[in-house]
Amino acid sequence: MKDKLDKLMIRAFAKPLYRIALVLLGLPTFVVAFLAYMSRKGQEDAGHQAIVETARKEAEEDGSLNRIRENAGMYLTNKYHHFNKDTDSAEFKKELEQQIRKDEEAEIAERTNQIYQRDGLKKRPTFIEFLCGCLNNQGLLVLSVITSLPMYVLLLISANPYSRYIFERLIMMIFVAFGVVFVVFTILHFASSDPAVNVLGETATAQQIADFNRVYGLDQPYIIQLLQNFKNLATFNLGNSYSGNEDVMAAILRKFPVTLEMSVYAFLIAVVISIPIGILTAVKPNTAFDYVFMFIALVGLSLPAFWFGMLLILTFSINNHILPASYVEGNKLSLLMPAIVSGTHLAASLARNTRSALLEVLGQDYIVTAKAKGLSNVRVIAKHALGNALIPIVTVAGLQFGGSLGGSAVIEKVFNVKGIGSYVVDKQFLPDIPAILGGVVYVSIIISLVNLAVDLIYVYLDPRIKSRLKSPRRKKL
User: Fold this and answer.
1) Do 152 and 145 meet the contact criterion of CB atoms below 8 Å apart?
2) How many Cβ atoms from other residues are within 10 Å of residue 371's Cβ?
3) pLDDT of residue 121
4) Measuring CA to CA, which residue among 142, 228, 139, 140 is closest to residue 185?
5) What residues does 240 pair with on adjacent strands?
6) Secondary structure of the chain in HEC code, one letter for each residue
7) Predicted confidence band at 322 (pLDDT cuts at 50, 70, 90)?
8) Which residues 6+ apart lie within 8 Å of 291 measured at CB?
9) What is the mean pLDDT of residues 241-258?
10) What's the pLDDT tens digit per position in 36-75?
11) Is the dihedral of CA 372, 377, 379, 384 positive or negative?
12) What is the pTM of this model?
């Protein structure tokens, strides 16, 4: 138990941020241990100082310190003569003193360690070693766990490379969310639009505008409003919107499912279409098949979403009455056309990236070797090429999926989908600051979570990343 706790503590304390977090989360334990450590430190320092003086005395008696002074003087004199500098200057004397002091300290430290080893003495424990020694006592350990449970939770998280990586990314996500709130609120605060006038109308009286500003805190200074928004974010209370006075958090949670559903359908359409086409065009580059499908992909990238959506509405809704023209809650078919419009752009981009990634891998030496061994093209591509080409493919797919989860305002507007994208755009024109902040915080969190998922997929796709994750470079204490 002691050895494991020692390793966890030392590894965690090697990182400054973990060190600060451990001290804050385990403050009762660290305060008591520090007081006990300082109470013993005086006696241990006296004993250690006596050994240091013994080492210094031995170095004086055998002439080691004199040799150090002579060698330092000779080295520095030759150096100054080489650069034509004056050896009688104050600079020379200062540098000589520093060099002698440094060499003497190194010599005495080495002799002190030799005395500890020769006499079988124990060195002074560091604070972490002292703390771990105290926690080796079962009673003290139980008491420490009771008073400083968050510290041990953090130690357990840091013990596993995967949980440590996820934890660090989640902490980064918190800073991203606060940074987004700061930037967006600052821009909206100093914008020329007046939310009170936009909500109440041009005919609103001065008293009505003043009451509106007082109710929503818009009459407060910039820094007070910013801190209030930070507080709302920290307490998961995004406030009420200016228009309709609805709870922003509840509104986002209500609109999130339809955006998620449309994004999942679009992503599935994109993957089913783009991956096979990307593979086939990479296997047969510079052929008619390659040119045709890459031309179609380029057209898919170039199609304006609003025009393509209206074309589908005209074809499948107005003329043929096959699909609903706009979104109807509870009707899955009404999400098919929005998903097709969104998925077409995703598929076009993903197909081109799949082709380029696979072409790069197919040109590697190990692919040529695999073919030379007589392996079939299907086996070479499926077993050797595709796995190594997946990392850039997964990157692009993850970014696209995260972006679609953030809401596509144009597509949602065309098909009257009450999702996140259209919600944020509608609130932008007031500007409805609580609603906009809630929307951008949602987008930042979603994209951060998707990027985290993509990074975790990297670990399983690339053994080199897994190795670096399990064996990170650690700083020496």
Assistant:
1) yes
2) 15
3) 63
4) 228
5) 247
6) CHHHHHHHHHHHHCCHHHHHHHHHHCHHHHHHHHHHHHHHHHHHHHHHHHHHHHHHHHHHHCCHHHHHHHHHHHHHHHHHHHCCCCCCCHHHHHHHHHHHHHHHHHHHHHHHHHHHHHHCCCCCCCHHHHHHHHHCCHHHHHHHHHHCHHHHHHHHHHHCHHHHHHHHHHHHHHHHHHHHHHHHHHHHHCCCCCHHHHHHCCCCCHHHHHHHHHHCCCCCCHHHHHHHHHHHHHCCCCCECCCCCCEHHHHHHHHHHHHHHHHHHHHHHHHHHHHHHHHHHHHCCCCHHHHHHHHHHHHHHHCCHHHHHHHHHHHHHHHCCCCCCCCCCCCHHHHHHHHHHHHHHHHHHHHHHHHHHHHHHHCCHHHHHHHHCCCCHHHHHHHHHHHHHHHHHHHHHHHHHHHHHCCCHHHHHHCCCCCHHHHHHHHHCCCCHHHHHHHHHHHHHHHHHHHHHHHHHHHHHCHHHHHHHHCCCCCCC
7) confident
8) none
9) 84
10) 877 776 666 666 777 788 888 888 888 888 888 888 888 8
11) positive
12) 0.67
Contact (Cβ atoms closer than 8 angstroms) between residue 356 and residue 366:
no
Residue closest to 439 by CA, chosen among 249, 229, 225? 249
Is the confidence at residue 474, as pLDDT, over 60? no
Q: Does position 1 have pLDDT exceeding 70, yes or no?
A: no
Residue 247's DSSP bridge partners are 240
For 195, the token pair is 């939310």
Tokens of 449: 């979570």
Tokens encoding 119: 């006499």
Ranges 120-134, 238-252, 427-441: which has the least confidence: 120-134
The phi-psi region of residue 239 (left if phi > 0; otherwise alpha if psi is between -120 and 50; otherwise beta) is: left
Structure tokens that stand for 309 in this block = 């959506």
Q: How far is CA 416 from CA 319, 331, 411, 412, in A?
A: 19, 13, 8, 6
Using CA atoms, how far apart are residues 456 and 61, in angstroms rounded to an integer? 62
- Residue 128 to residues 11, 44, 200, Cα–Cα distance (Å): 11, 16, 62
For residues 253 and 282, give the distance between their C-alpha atoms in angstroms, rounded to a whole number.
Answer: 42
Quick one: 225 exposed, middle or buried, by C-beta within 10 A (0-12, 13-18, 19+)?
A: middle
Q: What is the mean pLDDT of residues 209-224?
A: 86
**What are residue 240's phi and psi, to 5 degrees?**
-110, 145
- Main-chain phi, psi angles of 247, to 5 degrees: -70, 125
Mean pLDDT of 207-229: 87
Query: Amino acid letter at 414?
Result: V
Whole-number Å distance between alpha carbons of 39 and 57: 29
Task: Give the separation between CA 252 and CA 246, rounded to whole angstroms.
Answer: 10
